[in-house]
Structure prediction request, 152 residues.
Amino acid sequence: MSRIGNELIDDLDRSIIKFLSKNGRMSFTEIANQLNVTEKTVRTRYNNMVENDILEVVGVINPITLGIKMGAIIQLKVVPQHIDEVIEELRTIRVVRFITTISGEYPLLAQINVRDYEEINETVREVHAIPNVTATNVMVQMDVFKNTFEYL
Prediction:
C-alpha cells in the first residue's frame, strides 16, 4: 500500500476502520452506502489493509461470559541481561493477555485475566518461579470503566 505523506492510510481507510471497530460484521455494502463510495472500493481498501497488516479482524469475546471476572497488572523486576528469556516464559502462561516493556523501576508489565483471586495467586506464584525475576508488584483491577478497540 502506498503512503500518503507519512501515513499508511487515508481518511477513507480510517472511516472504514471506524465502522468495523464498532461493528466488525458490518457489510461492505452498508459501509459503502454510509461513505458514499462503491462496495468494490470498500472491499479493495479492506483487503489492502488486511494484506498490509494494518487491519486484523478477530472475534472478541466478553470474558465475563466465560467466568473470567478478575484482572491484575503485574510489574516485574528482572535481571537486565535476561529480560528476553523472562518475556518468553511469560508468553507461555495461559492467563497472560498483554506483555510490554516499560520505563522505571519495573521494566516489564504483564496483564492477566482470571476467574478469581485464587487464580491471581497461582499466577503470581508461577511468575515468581520464573528464573531472573527478582521482584513483582501486583495491582488487582477493581472496576473497568473503558475497554475499547476503537483507535481512530
